[in-house]
Amino acid sequence: MSAKLKLTLVRICAAAALLITAALLPTGGVLRLLCFLVPYALVGWDVYAKAARNLCHGQIFDENFLMVIATVGALALGEYPEAVFVMLFYQLGEWFQKLAVGKSRRSIAELMAIRPDSAAVLRQGETVIVSPEEVAVGETIVVQPGEKIPLDGVVAEGASTLSTAALTGEAKPVEVGPGDEALSGCVNLSGLLKITVSRPFGESTVVKILELVENAAAGKAKTEQFITRFARVYTPVVVGGALLVALLPPLFAGHFTRWLHRALIFLVVSCPCALVLSVPLTFFGGIGGASKRGILVKGAHYMEALARAKTAVFDKTGTLTEGRFTVQSAAPAPGCPLSEQQLLALAAAAEQFSTHPLAASLCAAAPAPLPGPVENVQETAGEGVCATVAGRPVAVGGRRLMERLHIPLPQTEGEPAATEVHLAVEGRYCGSVRFADRLKAESPAAVLQLRALGVEKIVVLTGDRPEAAEAVCAPLGVDEVYAGLLPGDKVARVNALKQHGKKGDTLLFAGDGMNDAPVLARADVGIAMGAMGSDAAIEAADVVLMDDNPEKVAEAIALSRRTLAIVRQNIGFSLAVKGLVLALSVFGLTGMWQAVFADVGVMVLAVLNASRALAAPRREKGQAETLST
Amino acid sequence: MTQTFQLQELDCPNCAAKMESEIRKIKGVESAAVSFMTGRLTLAAPEDQFADVLKKAQKICKKIEPDCKIVTR
């Protein structure tokens, strides 16, 4: 709590004590008025000051001014305690509002708890503690076990496990060693690391994420725009109503003071602040709560769009699948003496020094030890490898290598469904190894969760061949698979899918964010997955998932819906109570006490309800919180 | 050009909304957004008019919330 807020609280408490004293004193007449004017002045002088200032600027519907009129009116009617009470409660409400906003503003940064305060940098052989801004690119920082990595860099010395929980919301530890990238915001779990800084602090992952979350508040939700428009009309209408109530009925029925009293109650509830505050407060909390889970939403309007998603379009490779090719099967050619395992081992032996992605999968799948010695390795990019393995010339590679070596390939029926590598020994064709991309373990659950959330159509788009795509996607149970698409085709497909949807329904697209920027932009909500450390993806998407778990798409929808539900509860509740107070006061069924109590009470409840959005519920299996300290 | 500013002593959400709609009416403003929660003003205007627009925006903020100041971040 700031000093200013503390002072206000002391003032409010003092005024409350004075109000009670004044009420208990056995005084009457002018003396009684004076007794009540003391707490009134103490708690309300700044409201008067603000009202005067704003009046000079021509703002007649200023809440301070309306409060002044309401309380002066009450004083004039001889309702001294009411007048003081209204002013007191109004100030208490304002105070609480400021407290809540300040708390919420701070907690975003605290909750994510990823902004580092200091960095230990090696300078002239000594470790110096400086603020992260002062560390230059190329300098070496030292990160002890248990500490947060303050800046992005590459591990120069040491090996350790990192917790990415603060960035991704997942407690999956990552192994790092020399040469590996280490991102700011990760927590070093086990060993001492020396890291060569690769980016200045201002461009580091941590700062980018924080900026993204803070800037997200500028993207306003439709609900928020509606409420601000509503607020602009609400105050004049209620004040107009107050005038009518004060002037019209007395013309016919008399009892001027009775109706004036009722009109003053109107003024007490004329401030729409609870409403105007609770909507952005809730969205702010919702966006903060989501980012704690590694779901960065770039604006409240994307939360609204997510909540109404009826069509989910996924890119296949790297989104629903691992994006890594693993050996599916080895098929020795008919008449070839090699077994499947021998075929794999021979191919892996020849390929073991290659940097091609398929080579790594081959080596991972082959039985150890590999045959040797391996000599005369010649790699031709785009074709494959020729080498001498255990004295025999071996060729491993694609169709093109076999054609160059004039080795006839057996005829296959139709297009092969998977990526193939062929093997020839001493110029004779020996068989092939097939590779396939694997579904991510979470993909089937991700599809089920989307269905449970009422997403009607789930579509997969891919540049792969139809057979391969169908084979991989079959276990998922998606509605449509469109294969063989070029990037331009994907945009056209998304456009077509959008036209089918009903008005108000939205389409989301989830991809890895690398090559699908146009599609991300075309979808109502573009989601980039596995974006940790990829600036391009963070830039292009509306929603950024820090890790590459497709289940997070469903989680993002669920969180958005929850946030929107809280917003609706607040709007409904505030409007209902205000309406009720207005209606009751017309019939003289409520007094000023109750009116201000209801008004401020609603505000407090709305603010407390809004704070639920930030504290997103724990998932059963997630232990993200336990590691994110 | 687009620039983001901090609004100090921005205390009332209704005022933030009022400021936003008033600032949008300034001649030359391409877009303006006031976020109450982060206390930020994001202002876009042609470079040659920017200083002028900013001055007018400051005036509007002062008018709506007298303690409010626009500062560069």
Structure description:
The complex is a heterodimer of chains A (629) and B (73). With 629 residues, chain A is α+β, with helices and mostly antiparallel strands. Among the domains of chain A are: 119-150 and 152-198, Calcium-transporting ATPase, cytoplasmic transduction domain A; 324-439, Calcium-transporting ATPase, cytoplasmic domain N, CATH 3.40.1110.10. Helices cover 52% and strands 19% of the residues of chain A. Chain A is built from 22 helices and 22 strands. Chain A has a seven-stranded mixed beta sheet with strand order 10-22-21-20-11-18-19, sandwiched between helices. A six-stranded antiparallel beta sheet of chain A has the order 2-1-3-9-4-7, with no helix packed on it. The longest helix of chain A has 36 residues, at 551-586. By secondary structure, chain B is α+β, with helices and mostly antiparallel strands. In chain B, helix 1 packs antiparallel against helix 2 (50-64). The longest helix of chain B has 15 residues, at 50-64. The radius of gyration of chain B is 11 Å and the shape is globular. Classes of the chains: A alpha+beta (629), B alpha+beta (73).
Question: Could you list some keywords that capture this structure?
Answer:
A: 629 residues, Calcium-transporting ATPase, cytoplasmic domain N, seven-stranded mixed β-sheet, six-stranded antiparallel β-sheet, 22 helices, B: 73 residues, alpha+beta, Alpha-Beta Plaits, 2 helices
Q: Identify low-pLDDT runs of chain B.
A: none
* CATH architecture descriptor name of the domain at 324-439 in chain A: 3-Layer(aba) Sandwich
Evaluate the radius of gyration of chain B.
11 Å
User: What percent of residues of chain B adopt helix (DSSP H or I)?
Assistant: 25-40%
The CATH C-level class name of chain B = Alpha Beta
CATH third-level topology of the domain at 324-439 in chain A: Calcium-transporting ATPase, cytoplasmic domain N
For the report, how would you describe the main beta sheet of chain A?
Answer: 7 strands, mixed
Number of separate structural domains of chain B: 1
Low-confidence stretches of chain A: 620-629
Count of DSSP E strands of chain B?
A: 4
Mean pLDDT of chain A: 85
Order of helices and strands of chain B: EHEEHE
Sheet-strand content of chain A, in percent, reads 15-25%
